[in-house]
Specification:
The chain is an all-alpha fold. It has six helices and no strands. The radius of gyration is 21 Å and the shape is extended.
Length: 171
């Protein structure tokens, strides 16, 4: 979180995110277009990193459902203040929120797993452990399960904002 918007800071953030995702295309932008305004320069830098423009509709807030869901969760957290006292207060709140959101908050869209569990490859093992516990509970007291044998929520095979049309799979 910065005091003001900055193309240079945004470019560095995107480069860092691309590099940390271990993308084979992640690298620092190698060219700086000349005679382009900041918006075009930013687009060129993103293209260098393999982040390509989507054709979302203008003024449609549901084009990125993941960002929208995260922002709604942020706003409706009981601890979300009416106003932040300072930029430092906002940064501290967001730092805590992002840690909680990624490491503790269970998301219905990914089988009630945390994003960290899915990202680090722990989802299948956690899913199997949940199934083991549910099977044991059913064996001990089947009368509690009026709909039959319970199963944990299904894990998605992939999650996309805009599914690519090529065979390339994002990692």
């Amino acid at each position: 979180m910065q005091q003001r918007e900055s193309a240079r800071v945004a470019e560095a953030l995107i480069a860092q995110a691309a590099a940390s995702s271990r993308s084979s295309r992640a690298r620092s932008p190698t060219r700086r277009p000349r005679k382009l305004d900041d918006l075009e320069a930013g687009r060129a830098a993103l293209a260098d990193l393999g982040v390509l423009k989507t054709h979302s509709r203008p003024y449609t807030s549901t084009d990125n459902p993941y960002s929208e869901a995260q922002f709604r969760t942020l706003k409706y957290r009981p601890a979300f203040p009416e106003r932040f006292d300072s930029i430092e207060h906002a940064r501290a709140f967001c730092r805590e929120f992002v840690d909680w959101y990624n490491n503790q908050h269970r998301h219905s869209g990914i089988g009630l797993m945390t994003p960290a569990a899915v990202h680090h490859g722990h989802a299948k093992a956690l899913h199997a452990e949940r199934q083991r516990v549910l099977t044991a509970a059913y064996a001990a007291t089947p009368e509690r399960f009026v709909r039959g044998k319970p199963t944990p929520p299904t894990l998605p095979t992939a999650a996309w904002i805009n599914k690519p049309t090529t065979q390339e799979v994002a990692h």
